[in-house]
Design goal:
alpha+beta, Rossmann fold, Elongation Factor Tu (Ef-tu), domain 3, 7 helices, elongated
Length: about 300
């Protein structure tokens, strides 16, 4: 997939504001998961998460989205024709939308910050009845520090308690955005979720990097699998990582092999390589996650000498 067809983004929200429900609807609408296979809050893979309804473990997922520009897509009253390129200079066609589902609970701000490093954009979900919460503010400031493009979304606008004008003013005061940039949705029913997908393509910039440079990949999560060993979730900044290549962690100096590489759609899907700008996984022969710490850089051993 060409760099200009990739969008890496996360969802920021306070607990129970509808982050995981929105992620579920996105996966349904992009055909990533068939509706009949849908489990509520699919990305929340740990038992504790499903039990308490909160997201703990980061679970990236790649969605294929066929974006078709419409006249209503353009902002600021632009004239629209077949050559119009909306906000981020994009044209119609299939895009890879890589979603990192960040934790919404106050205890997991470290996991939020590390997942933001792998993104260029963030969808800010705010409950239209509750408004912006303190933890939401903290995560928005983290996103701003990373210079992420923020897409404001009001969720649960169909509920009787929703106060759209009041919460819209809160969002405008926080982000300095215009009112027509705020998308009003119901993640539960799916109403206007298609507008969120289109906004990700239009507003979030494509990743930068050079596929011909020396390989650099950011580890934004890692875990130990009893059957497969240490598995890394990475964002490839430059170069490529192919199956079978010898890899090296720059911070820990650990050496290993990329036994398998691939994408999560949302299940592990092996591929021959991970390319620049992509988010995916690496199955390694490392013995412990201490050898591949979050925030470390993966490169190829052949570049180190």
């Amino acid at each position: 997939m060409k760099l200009d067809r990739i969008r890496n983004f996360c969802i920021i929200a306070h607990i129970d504001h509808g982050k995981s429900t929105l992620a579920d609807r996105m996966m349904e609408m992009t055909g990533t998961v068939a509706k009949r296979e849908m489990k509520s809050q699919l990305l929340d893979s740990m038992e504790l998460e499903r039990e308490k309804g909160i997201t703990i473990k980061l679970a990236p997922v790649r969605m294929k989205y066929d974006y078709q520009p419409k006249q209503s897509d353009t902002l600021r009253g632009q004239e629209w024709d077949e050559t119009t390129q909306a906000d981020s200079g994009c044209v119609g066609g299939v895009y890879d939308l890589n979603l990192i589902d960040t934790p919404g609970h106050v205890d997991f701000s470290y996991e939020v910050s590390r997942s933001l490093q792998a993104c260029e954009g963030a969808v800010l979900v705010v409950d239209a009845s509750q408004g912006i919460q303190a933890q939401t503010l903290a995560n928005v400031y983290l996103a701003m520090e990373q210079n992420l493009v923020i897409i404001p979304v009001l969720n649960k606008v169909d509920l009787p308690a929703a106060d759209v004008p009041r919460v819209s003013r809160q969002v405008i005061n926080l982000l300095g955005c215009r009112e027509d940039e705020i998308i009003q949705i119901s993640a539960k029913t799916g109403n206007n979720v298609d507008q969120v997908l289109a906004a990700i393509v239009k507003r979030v910039p494509a990743p930068t990097g050079n596929t011909h440079d020396k390989t650099r990949a950011l580890i934004f999560d890692s875990y130990y699998d009893d059957y497969r060993g240490v598995i890394l979730y990475v964002r490839v900044v430059d170069g490529q990582i192919k199956k079978g290549e010898a890899i090296k962690m720059l911070a820990t100096d650990a050496n290993g092999l990329a036994l398998e590489v691939g994408h999560l759609s949302p299940m592990m899907t092996p591929d021959p390589l991970l390319d620049t700008g992509e988010i995916g996984y690496i199955v390694t022969n490392l013995k412990t996650t201490r050898e591949a710490r979050v925030g470390d850089t993966v490169t190829l051993k052949k570049y180190i000498g």
